[in-house]
């Protein structure tokens, strides 16, 4: 929240979305946010794809989305229990499609131009640091996504 407030005036005049942990977005809210965005940021627990319905996502067409940033793959005891209970009802293939590389490929196929995603499990603090670096370089310094990713890799 601090990072969003810090960069609010730099390019965020039309930002909308859901922040906080008070409500879980419905599938309709996910779809509305995804279809109306030019950039999308997910900062949350577990796999991004575990929060949206796979069959609905792959049927979408979101060519207006130029950049999707997925700062996910954070695990707590509560989120791990939720994902375990959810995965029981999914096939092995479905779960495999929720992995980072497969997620990036699916998003690309439905029209997303660029995907920046976490590749392995991390902490909320590490994702907060990544978000700060992303916003600083993309919004403050005006660097390209490629330049920004290169900075993140260091």
TrEMBL record:
The record's listing under InterPro entries reads:
CFAP46 (IPR039586)
Judging by the UniProt lineage, the source's domain of life is Eukaryota
Tell me one GO biological process term: axoneme assembly
Q: What is the name listed in the Swiss-Prot or TrEMBL entry for this protein?
A: CFA46 protein
- Identify the taxonomic lineage of the organism of origin: Eukaryota, Metazoa, Chordata, Craniata, Vertebrata
Q: Which gene encodes it?
A: Cfap46
């Amino acid at each position: 929240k601090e990072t969003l407030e810090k960069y609010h005036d730099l390019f965020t005049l039309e930002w909308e979305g859901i922040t906080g942990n008070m409500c879980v977005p419905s599938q309709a809210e996910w779809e509305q946010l995804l279809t109306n965005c030019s950039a999308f940021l997910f900062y949350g627990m577990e796999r991004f794809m575990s929060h949206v319905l796979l069959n609905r996502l792959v049927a979408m067409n979101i060519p207006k989305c130029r950049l999707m940033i997925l700062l996910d793959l954070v695990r707590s005891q509560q989120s791990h229990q939720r994902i375990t209970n959810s995965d029981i009802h999914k096939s092995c293939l479905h779960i495999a499609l929720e992995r980072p590389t497969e997620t990036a490929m699916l998003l690309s196929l439905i029209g997303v131009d660029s995907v920046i995603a976490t590749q392995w499990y991390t902490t909320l603090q590490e994702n907060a640091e990544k978000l700060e670096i992303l916003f600083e370089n993309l919004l403050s310094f005006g660097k390209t996504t490629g330049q920004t990713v290169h900075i993140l890799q260091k």
